[in-house]
């Protein structure tokens, strides 16, 4: 494919005309697609349908310890799920709290607790300034929590190995930097997995703030698209080696294993942190929905069953990811107008278009009936300084729809690039 | 029955000896009963067993609006349940937020939000002093929330009509008094329902603090033991008449309708407050477990079905309450050593024994194998200043066990009273 950058002015104008005709054609097809969020599709949710047969109808309501899961009690969740999450999260089951349907809620609560009660130091709300490191692009809802609590967000560049650790190591010398958001495996939105070196440096960090916490959102811990998925170093073990295990709180959930709205979330931390978190929880709730936990415990009696289950998701998701990547390869490769990631798992593909063009791409797509995640949403304060990053969430539509969406997207990327490049010429 | 108070010293000593023999006999029976918490019994939970057939197995996952309840979305809950809770809570369905499995969690979140973001004024954590009125005896978990957040609790005397409103009206002149806990119907632990006059005076309150909130925990809104249960005036309507509707936030749940651990909770408030609460929630969660909400919506297609369902609970609970009250009548009536409530609903009976005797009663019961709610737990900071109040939770044990428990309790009350009365004499 010829690079758009190296084209003559005449060639660019000719290409613009051609791509514009393509765009007009696509626009007239009456497409109506929503790729704004990383929602699993119907077919994926159907994979877990058997879960409804596992509680009720003479199956009994007791877990392996004899607890009637219908009644009150059990603040930190069922033992079976602690063991299961222990294998997902790589810490001892005693360090796990199994919660309700939302890991986001657990993260929110953790920050809220820090605001009013601190983490061994003054409540963050009573400290002069609280800042958080935000590898960007990242997960908009993480940034939303910071914004709600008035925590100043400092964007950190992402490399192919995770956050730029030189930058991070410099920034944590500031005592008002109290934490950092991380999606360490198949990151949202880039699908990057932190390298061993990144994890080791992160575990070795000695932040100036004694109440610094890494918010380790391992949402896609076992969400591989291929058998040879990425591997993530066990950060907790690395932290223990460095004596920094109190610096990290880890989260995950089954939202993208069973049901987005009715899964089970978990958090894991050092014994000291778990004690703190549980102390708050005794005032917050009598306990999570143990019946839904019981459903999950019976659905996944061991880790192998869970891994097999995830293969069913991969079978559904893989063609959707490949449809996007194939179209990118076909339409954008060699043109020097876009750089994209090729994740081996997770829920997103990230593409960086020419600087200043992302919003125009979003607009062109919208006009052609394709709704994308709002440009900027993946950055602190909703602002992508380069106006370049686009998050693609291919999970919800069908493969056919994803193909159509990719066509529209590629066309819009080309069109926006040519508009920019020809405008520069004129 | 002869009054213990009017007995001669010799009569008291003889009675003490007799009651002590009774106690020894009961102690030797090897009873092991737990009446510490207001937990529904197995038989009550079985009443809702059909709920498990209502989602899954070809029943579909969509609600009346076509939402697939398995997926993300729906921050404030399903419309069907908003309509159902609207009838329980007496406000328009648009003012209702349907949540997860815990109304306690919703209350905690409301206070937590006030601490960090306030209610239109400065965040409570940044205000010099925050106080809460706590009608006592009351619900220990309400007081626990205040304690956790460092909110100073001011006990308010309960009358047979609810909190002493003369006292309340005086106390709210203090600008640092920011709110008040209320269990207005079949209160925990006394089973009292606020009189119309109490509700009207409460709705008419003009607290000095502009960010004052009544935390209206209507946990037992439809939990009658008898057809002619208590009726509670609609406080929201009274508030609207007074223009004080922003002063109140209301809570309820199905914890004691379906399952304590896996019910559905709801909160209701003025449009202005609902907007504030939802703003926080957008940062806190993507949404509640809609599948469990759907189960409930299908279980209770209308209010009549729900009311009929509650009658099944009443049939189970009534004999347990009556077993306690019959034993009280038989053993304590006329002795001038105990005053108890006779609730027409709810989960608790409250008995006031002679001042200074409650802890001794608790101890005597424990030694005879009956665990009671810890004395003092129903008061702010866990301290009953008169050491007199005992909360009885008859729902969990069987009728036979409740009878046995009541025997032990009455015997312990008599024994503790006689110990006190004879000690005074000696």
Keywords:
homodimer; three-stranded antiparallel β-sheet; eight-stranded mixed β-sheet; alpha/beta
Rg of chain A, nearest Å: 23 Å
Sketch the topology of chain A as an H/E string, one letter per element: HEHHEHEHEEHEHEHEEHHHEEHEEH
Q: Tally the helices of chain A.
A: 13
% residues in beta strands of chain A: 5-15%
Identify the overall geometry of chain A.
Answer: globular
Low-pLDDT segments of chain A: none
Largest sheet of chain A: 8 strands, mixed
Structural class based on helices, strands and sheet pairing of chain A: alpha/beta
Q: Care to count the β-strands of chain A?
A: 13
The overall average pLDDT of chain A, rounded, is 96
Helix coverage percent of chain A: 40-55%
Oligomer: homodimer
Distance between the termini of chain A: 24 Å
Strand order of the largest sheet of chain A: 2-9-8-7-6-3-4-5
Largest interface in this structure: A-B, 56 and 55 residues
């Amino acid at each position: 494919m010829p690079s758009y950058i190296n084209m003559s002015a005449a060639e660019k104008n000719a290409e613009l005309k051609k791509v514009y005709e393509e765009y007009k054609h696509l626009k007239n097809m009456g497409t109506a697609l929503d790729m704004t969020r990383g929602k699993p599709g119907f077919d994926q949710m159907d994979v877990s349908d058997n879960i409804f047969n596992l509680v009720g109808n003479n199956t009994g309501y007791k877990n392996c310890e004899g607890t009637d899961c219908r009644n009150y009690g059990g603040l930190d969740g069922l033992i079976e799920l602690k063991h299961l999450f222990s294998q997902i999260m790589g810490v001892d089951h005693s360090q796990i709290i199994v919660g309700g349907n939302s890991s986001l809620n657990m993260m929110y609560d953790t920050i809220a607790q820090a605001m009013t009660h601190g983490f061994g130091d003054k409540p963050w709300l009573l400290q002069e300034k609280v800042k958080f490191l935000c590898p960007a692009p990242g997960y908009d809802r993480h940034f939303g929590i910071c914004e709600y609590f008035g925590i100043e967000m400092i964007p950190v560049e992402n490399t192919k190995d995770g956050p730029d650790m030189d930058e991070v190591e410099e920034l944590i010398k500031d005592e008002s930097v109290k934490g950092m958001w991380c999606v360490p495996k198949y990151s949202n939105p880039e699908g990057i997995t932190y390298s061993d070196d990144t994890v080791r440096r992160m575990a070795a960090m000695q932040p100036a703030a004694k109440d610094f916490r890494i918010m380790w959102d391992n949402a896609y811990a076992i969400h591989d698209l291929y058998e040879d998925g990425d591997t993530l170093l066990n950060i907790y073990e690395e932290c223990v080696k460095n004596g920094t295990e109190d610096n990290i709180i880890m989260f995950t959930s089954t939202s993208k294993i069973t049901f987005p709205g009715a899964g089970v979330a978990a958090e894991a931390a050092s014994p000291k942190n778990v004690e703190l978190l549980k102390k708050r929880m005794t005032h917050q709730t009598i306990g999570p929905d143990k019946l839904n936990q019981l459903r999950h415990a019976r659905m996944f009696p061991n880790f192998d069953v869970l891994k097999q289950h995830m293969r069913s998701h991969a079978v559904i998701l893989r063609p959707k990811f490949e449809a996007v990547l194939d179209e990118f390869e076909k339409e954008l490769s060699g043109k020097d107008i876009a750089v994209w990631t090729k994740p081996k798992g997770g829920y997103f593909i990230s593409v960086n278009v020419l600087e200043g063009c992302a919003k125009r791409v979003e607009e062109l797509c919208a006009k052609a009936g394709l709704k994308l995640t709002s440009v900027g949403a993946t950055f602190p304060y909703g602002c992508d300084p380069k106006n370049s990053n686009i998050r693609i969430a291919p999970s919800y539509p069908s493969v056919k729809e994803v193909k159509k969406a990719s066509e529209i997207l590629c066309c819009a990327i080309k069109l926006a690039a040519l508009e920019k490049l020809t405008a520069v010429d004129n």
